[in-house]
Amino acid sequence: MKVLKPLLVLFAAVTAFTGATFAVYYTNSDMKLVRRIYDKAQPYYDNLKKDRKL
Fold first, then answer.
1. Long-range contacts made by residues 33-38, C-beta under 8 angstroms, separation at least 24?
2. What's the predicted TM-score (pTM) here?
3. What is the mean pLDDT of residues 27-51?
4. Which among 10, 30, 36, 44 would be 20 to 30 A from 51, CA to CA?
């Protein structure tokens, strides 16, 4: 019984982690978050002084 409880907790943690990562993958929410951060940061980088022209 002492060994079963930690294994059950480990199994629950792995299952929860797998479910969470699948939800992020399925909804593509990681790239949606990156896009929001990129859109907020873009004006800052556009206004930086450049030392050379491309």
1. none
2. 0.61
3. 92
4. 36
